[in-house]
Amino acid sequence: MTEDDISAKVAAIVDLDIVRVTTLHALHRTVRANDPALAKIWKSPELGEWRDLRTHPQYGPVAEWMWDVEGRSCELKYELVAEFGDNWDELNDVLCAEVLRRRMT
């Protein structure tokens, strides 16, 4: 894999994760505002309860989309970590550097 390929995958992972987390927080706010019963169960957007919403008639399509985005991000991470000799710390450092670079620009 070339350096450009690695850079493209890093950028794609960060893009996917940012969109997923932003959507996750918006979905959490919506659930908490509109569905008190679900809000009692899903207390924090970081908790995995959102995955249970995939079959919900109202929130299911969004949760399913987030599931797919998360899966694609994970696939790319596994592809890249193989390039780094299965060193997850190195991958994490590269991803964090990309996020920091974006914050600076």
Structure description:
This protein has 105 residues and is mainly alpha-helical. Helices cover 75% and strands 0% of the residues. It has helices at residues 3-34, 36-41, 60-83, 88-104. Helix 1 (3-34) runs antiparallel to helix 3 (60-83). The longest helix is centred in the first third of the chain and has 32 residues, at 3-34. The chain is elongated, with a radius of gyration of 16 Å.
Question: TL;DR of this structure?
Answer:
The chain has 105 residues and is mostly helical. Helices cover 75% and strands 0% of the residues.
Question: Key terms for this structure?
Answer:
4 helices, 105 residues, 75% helix, mainly alpha
Shape label: elongated
What's the SSE pattern?
Answer: HHHH
Mean pLDDT across all residues, rounded?
94
Number of helical runs? 4
Spatial gap, N to C terminus? 27 Å
Low-confidence stretches: none
Largest sheet: none
What is the rounded Rg? 16 Å
The overall strand count is 0
Strand content: under 5%
| Helix-strand makeup class | mainly alpha
What is the helical fraction, as a range of percent? over 70%
Give the topology, please.
Elements: H1 3-34, H2 36-41, H3 60-83, H4 88-104
Helix pairs in contact: 1-3, 1-4
